[in-house]
Amino acid sequence: DQQVKQNSPSLSVQEGRISILNCDYTNSMFDYFLWYKKYPAEGPTFLISISSIKDKNEDGRFTVFLNKSAKHLSLHIVPSQPGDSAVYFCAAIGGGADGLTFGKGTHLIIQP
Amino acid sequence: ETGVTQSPTHLIKTRGQQVTLRCSSQSGHNTVSWYQQALGQGPQFIFQYYREEENGRGNFPPRFSGLQFPNYSSELNVNALELDDSALYLCASSKGSYNSPLHFGNGTRLTVT
User: Fold this and answer.
1) CB neighbour burial string for A56-77, b if at least 16 within 10 angstroms, e if fewer
2) How far apart are the C-alpha atoms of A100 and B45, rounded to whole Å?
């Protein structure tokens, strides 16, 4: 039973364009959401987060949008840069659950 | 500021053996958690320690156990290894508040044969 779903295993975007990574969740008790980025042979690195009381959070080139009614969040990266090529994980916490629940990740490839 | 460090980086064990993985938390962090990442999957929460006590656990059997030491370093122990235990084991530390982001180490790659 996957409570956090990232339905696109991979995404290819041209350098300079917008990258949009999507994430759906099923547990309505989740109240805090995070995005992590992972390069090969390294641990995940925290990117950006959003509380369920907000619908948008922005940090430089990264913006996360939350649609609670649809149980959907997205990460926008603009403009996309070659160094953004990595695996992106969506994660959630809340409802008394211990620890973060992660999706399976989306491999973002930025093409020159 | 020293980040989260894990040792060893790679390990090969035989089914039925026991293994201990180690982690040093980032300075200033008092909470440590462990995650298992199987191939093609996202990290799965094993357990979390705060002030040397386990204060959260995921859906893992008791043969997965841990320790947190007064200096906030930590160990993950796995007994009676099974082939399915082959995975990347990630340690993460944080300041302990609910919305405090986790800082991950680079992981230990465990292979069980």
Assistant:
1) eeeeeebbbbbeeeebebbbbb
2) 7
Phi/psi of residue A83, nearest 5 degrees: -70, -10
Point out the residue among A43, A51, A105 whose CB comes nearest to the CB of B90.
A43
Q: What is the DSSP letter of A78?
A: S
Q: What is the dihedral of CA A88, A94, A98, A102, to 10 degrees?
A: -20
Tens digits of per-residue pLDDT, A18-73? 999 999 999 999 999 999 999 998 999 999 999 999 999 999 999 999 999 999 99
Give residue ranges of B with CB < 8 Å to any A CB.
4, 33, 35, 40-48, 55-58, 90, 92, 98-99, 101-107
Report DSSP state, residue A59: E
Contacts of A36 in chain B (CB under 8 A): 104
Beta-strand relationship, B87-94 and A4-5: unpaired
The backbone region for A84, taken as left when phi is positive above 0, alpha when psi lies in -120 to 50, beta otherwise, is: alpha
pLDDT(A1) > 80:
no
- What gap in Å lies between CA A55 and CA A66, rounded to an integer? 5
Collapsed DSSP state (helix, strand, coil) of residue A83: helix
- Rounded Cα distance between B67 and B13, Å, is 21
Rounded to whole angstroms, what are the CA distances from A108 to A13, A89, A100, B102?
8, 11, 22, 22
Q: Among B40, B44, B106, whose Cβ lies nearest the Cβ of A41?
A: B106
